[in-house]
Amino acid sequence: MDPKSDAAEDPARNAEFEARIARGESIEPKDWMPDRYRKQLVRMMSQHAHSEVVGMLPEGNWITRAPTLRRKMGLLAKVQDEAGHGLYIYCGTETLGVDRHELVGQLLAGTAKYSSIFNYPTLAWADIGAIGWLVDGAAIVNQTMLAKASYGPYARAMVRICKEENFHKKQGFEIMTILSAGTPAQHRMAQDAVNRWWWPSLMMFGPHDKDSPNSAEMMRWGVKRKSNDELRQRFINLTVAQAKAINLTLPDPELRYNEATENWDIGPIDWAEFWRVVKGDGPCNRQRLAARNKAHDDGAWVRQAATAYAAKHASKSEAA
Amino acid sequence: MKPDESRVTSHESPDSQWPLWEVFVQPPGGEPHQHAGSVHAADAEQALQNARDVYARRGEGVSIWVVPSSAIVASTPDDMGPFFDPGNDKPYRHPQFYKVPRGVRL
Asked: Is B39 within 8 Å of chain A by CB?
């Protein structure tokens, strides 16, 4: 749909809407909004919710093999948080008039997108550290910005999520700190994980601004406050010093400090790889979708039992 | 992966998503209950348990209310102006309206 058609549909309301965005007001579920704003939010928020849910899979892979009880408890709590984050955002998306049921159906059918980062495998324990540090670190940069989004329910979900993500990042960084300072084999494992997760983490921010039409529209509407490239740069600048502090190298021979811009410049991102994974040909796309479907199907009896239990109690209280 | 359209329909009827409940959590320290979000649940008991797991994993609450979303009656943005108007034109309801002698601490 062409964004201009909304304006043509109802120019006065559209002007008032744009004015509210300009004043920094929060848009709430019952407020009038252009169709295109609603549709783009449903797309963006449901993809975000799906990402939280699929994000449980690479980490869940290591719960039974965590090296200590302390690590196992931390990882369990983190994976449980990701489930919660998915639910916060589905709940926010439902305020736009779409059913969670429908969104979950799209995820399971393979017609919905989620963050490509979760289509990479977790090959070693250090990957859990690298995910917490880099993937959650990148997510925090993005979500801190989204906590000021113009749509109230989305912004409020992000505030809640940001509070919890700090624990995720910190536990990941602790894992990396200890492995990096451990035996030579442990250090190699940590470095190998960084080598594999660094570039996909940078891709999490999405295509360059010039190649991201959705992003420009979302910025005009105050859903996003900063561009993909700005957020990516912020993440890089934060992470360089962290890697140095724990004696790990970011796998980019072209990484260097730019005195003029006061930013860390990076080498070229492999966008062919990014699009390949987005379009379904990453290392684990099929596996992730199969695992989600299996979990959903295996849980059917629980949902049926809960429904039957509720029905039984409802009929009992009616009889009484 | 090739999208499997049949999945979407196969998830529709036998697997409904249950009613929606709004969740209000009271933080420790005597503050009032505050809206936290919503959950789907088959009944009130499950709604409370889901609300605890989703919105109070870190001691955020000392009490939770769950209310069927359909039971909530809300004002609408369209009549926001006239609806709140009676409260907006009465400056004498605010302390700043009243004058007291200078230098007196009240």
From this structure: yes
Q: Which of A30, A110, A296 sits opposite B76 (nearest CB)?
A: A30
Would you give the DSSP letter of residue A27? B
The per-residue pLDDT for A42 is: 97
Q: B50: burial class by Cβ within 10 Å (0-12, 13-18, 19+)?
A: buried
Cα–Cα distance, A111 to A164 (Å, whole number): 29
pLDDT of residue B10: 35
Q: Rounded distance, CA A85 to CA A77, Å?
A: 12
Average pLDDT of chain A to the nearest whole number: 94
* B53 part of contact set with chain A, CB < 8 Å: yes
Please report how many Cα atoms fall inside a 13 Å half-sphere around the Cα of residue B18, on the Cβ side: 22
The string over A214-234, giving b where at least 16 C-beta atoms fall within 10 Å of a residue's C-beta and e elsewhere, is ebeebbebbbbbbbbbebbbb
Q: Give the distance, in angstroms, between the CA of residue A287 and the centroid of all CA atoms in the same chain.
A: 19
A26 near B CB under 8 A: no
Q: Which of A94, A95, A315 to mutate to test the interface with B (most CBs of B within 10 A)?
A: A94
Between A and B, how many residue pairs show a Cβ–Cβ distance under 8 A? 81
**How far, in Å, CA of A174 to CA of A99, rounded?**
39
Q: What is the pLDDT of residues A198-246, one digit of tens each?
A: 999 999 999 999 998 888 889 999 999 999 999 999 999 999 999 999 9
The CATH homologous superfamily for domain B13-97 is: Phenylacetic acid degradation B (3.10.20.520)
Task: Select the residue of B3, B12, B77 nearest A110 (Cβ to Cβ).
Answer: B3
Which pLDDT tens digit goes with each residue over A172-202?
Answer: 999 999 999 999 999 999 999 999 999 999 9
User: ipTM > 0.95?
Assistant: no
Is A3-283 a domain of CATH 3.30.9.10? no
pTM of the model: 0.90
Residue A269 near residue A199, CB atoms below 8 Å: yes
Among A residues 114-153, those touching chain B with beta carbons less than 8 Å apart: none
